[in-house]
Amino acid sequence: MNKYFTHYCNLISSVAQIELCRQAQSLGELLACIKNLWNCDQLADHELLSEISRLNQTPITDVHVQLAGTWLPYRYQPKQQLVNWLLPVGPATEPFQDETIVRYRQLLFNQIIQPCSSLPSAQQQGEHLTPVKPAGFIFHLSRCGSTLVSGCISELETTCVFSESPLLTELLLDKNLSPDELQSGLCALINLQAAVFPDRPQMIIKWNAWDIFRWELIREIYPQVPVIFLVRDPVEILASHQRLAGRHMAGDRSLAGVNSVFISESREQTLLAWRSGVLAALLGEMNRASEQRAVLRIDYKNLDADGIREICQHFGLRPDIGRINQRMKFHSKSGVVFANDIPVKQAIFSTDDKTRIQQALSPLYTEFFE
User: Fold this and answer.
1) pLDDT average per 10 residues of sequence, the chain (370 residues)
2) Cα 284–287–293 angle (5° rounding)?
3) How far is CA 16 from the centre of its chain?
4) How far is CA 273 from CA 242, 243, 357, in A?
5) List of domains in the chain
6) Contact between residue 66 and residue 129 where contact means Cβ atoms under 8 Å apart
7) What's the confidence (pLDDT) of residue 62?
8) C-alpha span between 351 and 307 (Å, rounded)
9) Under 8 Å between Cβ of 11 and 5
10) What is the structure's pLDDT at 277?
11) 3-state class of 298 per DSSP?
């Protein structure tokens, strides 16, 4: 074991030591602070950085090394079953948690100290926390307003929003974990994510589009959590992916374990036909799941201020109409002034392609609202 590992564990476990290091204004100041804490003034800066790099790659397995409540688990590496952690810098306000993580990583301390732990160790820490009951789940077909919804909700002072968390996504994609292991891991990691925002007790999770195929697994853990299902005219969804394809519309083979529909398109199919099949599978699964209670079904065309207010009420949130209206003036992803793009998306496909999409998907889309 590296002789500095105990010092490293003491540092990441101590709120006082962390705060002392966070006050450093430069790399030199930070390294000087660490040298003082670790009593290693004899090390040159580059030698200390090499030691820290090795320590960052040493998984924390000791449950007495306290990460919960201070450090945010943000990434899961399935091959090694490792969880990566960083210090949060305020709540998430970005469209996706990936972007929030980029902001957190700009903190000098996060650039130097990057702990990881084994999944079992992370689970033990999460299981010792008070179990969290999220205030709401957002499931969607992608490109249908879910980012707008989560962005508006993030404006509320009482909420912490996890929008397509890469941590939860990669855990659910781990083929080597049994359903029971996935459920226990998911529950623990959700507890750990919520623990770093104690002053924002209402947790909202926006899942990825393909997570609807994990509906039963997720719902079994959280049967009472209010849920919204977001959909949109299939022509407009596919038009959006025509311009810039999402992960599940790009033939990503890592999703094949979730559902065989994600296996890359056959040579005998056009790309549009394959994507229509993916969307049909997602919508069909959502139709089956939406029969349960506590599920609010929303269409993109109804996502105005009243629609957002209805969602907030469904989640038991008190909407700040002024802040929500201000957020809705801008595009949810790009931040530019919002302009209705429905006519543009409806015009992307040829008449024949549009007819094929409607023949394949309109019955499912109609069924969603019955």
Assistant:
1) 87 96 96 96 96 96 89 96 96 91 97 96 91 96 91 91 95 94 96 96 96 95 95 93 89 87 71 93 93 86 89 91 76 57 82 92 91
2) 155
3) 29
4) 12, 16, 8
5) 1-58 (no CATH), 67-368 (3.40.50.300)
6) no
7) 83
8) 31
9) no
10) 93
11) strand
Neighbour order of strands in the sheet with 136-140: 159-163, 202-206, 136-140, 227-231, 295-299
260 vs 279: CA distance, rounded Å: 13
Residue 319 structure tokens: 């909407």
Q: Which residues partner with 230 through β-bridges? A: 140, 298
The first and second tokens of residue 232, run together, are 């949109």
Distances (CA, A) of 224 to 131, 155, 212, 281, 313: 14, 24, 17, 25, 15
As given in the structure block, the two tokens for residue 282 are 């997602």
Long-range CB contacts (< 8 A, 24+ apart) of 37-44? 37/7, 37/10, 37/11, 38/4, 38/7, 38/11, 39/7, 40/4, 40/7
